Amino acid sequence: MATFHYEGEQFLLDNEPITIISGAIHYFRVVPQYWRDRLLKLKAGGFNTVETYVPWNLHEPQEGKFNFEGIADLEQFIKTAEEVGLHVIVRPSPYICAEWEFGGLPAWLLADSDMVLRCFYQPFLDKVDAYFDELLPRLEPLLCTNGGPIIAMQIENEYGSYGNDKQYLNYVKDSMIKRGVDVLLFTSDGPDHHMLQGGMIDGILETVNLGSRAEQGFAQLALYQQNKPKMVMEFWNGWFDHWREEHHTREADDVAAELDIIFKLNGSVNFYMFHGGTNFGFYNGANNPKYSPTVTSYDYDAPLNECGEPTEKFYAVRDVINKYFPLEPLVLPEPIAKKAYGTVTLQESAPLFSILDQIGTKTTAAYPLTMEKLGQDYGFTFYQTFVPAPRDTYPLEIQEVRDRATVYLDEEYIGVIERDVEDEPKITFDTPAPGATLSLLVENMGRTNYGPLLRDCKGITEGVRLGNQFLYGWDMYTLPLDNVTNIPFQQTMDDTNIIGVDNTKRPTFYRGSLHIADAEPADTFLKLEGWTKGVIFINGFNLGRYWSEGPQKTYYIPAPLLRSGTNEIVIFEIHETTAATITFVDQAEL
What are the residue boundaries of the Glycoside hydrolase 35 catalytic domain, all occurrences included (predicted)? Predict the structure, then answer.
């Protein structure tokens, strides 16, 4: 049993002064087999604590059905950190941001049109309580007051950036305390007046989030909180990437200089991120006001890169830590092997239009329903209606699409309608007699994770028009793609015909095999030259999205997702590929 508290401006662990030097590693962005490797590197870098968010949507994917296994085994991650010799900070607030889908909130909340998020709205609080009833008893034995490694927990995340409902914040605090959480509680906010005013509550330690100007940030915090420890709960030493943007980097020397300032000011720190990892599956978030989804890689230009290798930033940061808190000689775990497995031909395919009834669940309604109203969280929704003829030519309007619709007339591709894309050309078409079938494949590219536009329903949110006339009478297929084993593939090419792909821009699944002769597979990276946009599956595991728009060029595949022998590769391509070949290389390209 240990105690962690503060007296004046000093943190105390078992009544001994301690400076918290923490790094964020999200267990849900790293395969479990690599948790120990990443945590050992954190410890070797001179850190004494690991911090992690807890995403509600991962642990309660369906209301009342909980998941704490595999990559969701939070308890095992915390126990592994303890074995390595690290303290743990846990941030289990209902909302986490984290560039994670819907900021960690479960999508099923949006099936209730009246739901109000992140305030004292009892139906929302009831859902939080049900989640806490399952989550917090799992954490209680791991608190330092019960002999575990957890020294502190967060109440809500950057709440002052969203609201100022103190009744709500106190409710969450009391909900944690009455479920046995008796370690240090804190809040974290940006160092602006309105953020600190909105996010702080009486009796709870406030921390600040910033990437630079720590002296100004601490001074601002001192206007609201005096004679308490100074801590940067999120020291943004890198940044994340959106599709269609440049890859973000930050110089190692700049990060080291800012960390030096934090220590000179007697501050504690949590690196956000120490190791970013990967947004596997459909869990990437997005930002507004112009809708911008986050890429699959969460490399973050962190001290450990996406595949867990130390970067120049790792060594620069360690040197600063060593200056203030002398370290033992550096000892790192053995490097994890990387291998280029070469080129694989995907010799089987299954066009989406021909298998809708086999892989999708059909619903019929007068008007298009949102993904949430259809009981779907992630993936794609297929909408289809009949347009009678003859009729004059009018532009096709979706009111409104979330987030990206590929449009087909009688199964022929005619264009894309995408959320918040400026100067997007209008789609118009002539309807042949006696009419034509209009189809829309709508992709949820990630729910908003930050800001006032958090309520982000997906699919078609209101209706579809030709000119001013709404179209009614819709068939809808939910395509969550949570199981690709039931896709009826057919052989479409052989060794003498490796180009036999469908270049008509119809959505198609492709399948092939990667054979690994080695007894132990190595990490590898998938390169998709000639492919346009879609989703990657490795042995049934959803690796994430790809898009030729960049900036991401390769896709990290941890070795534990592979096996010795035959590995199934499935690619869902929304548009087209120049050749049904993919290449496995031994290093990332950013």
Answer: 10-323
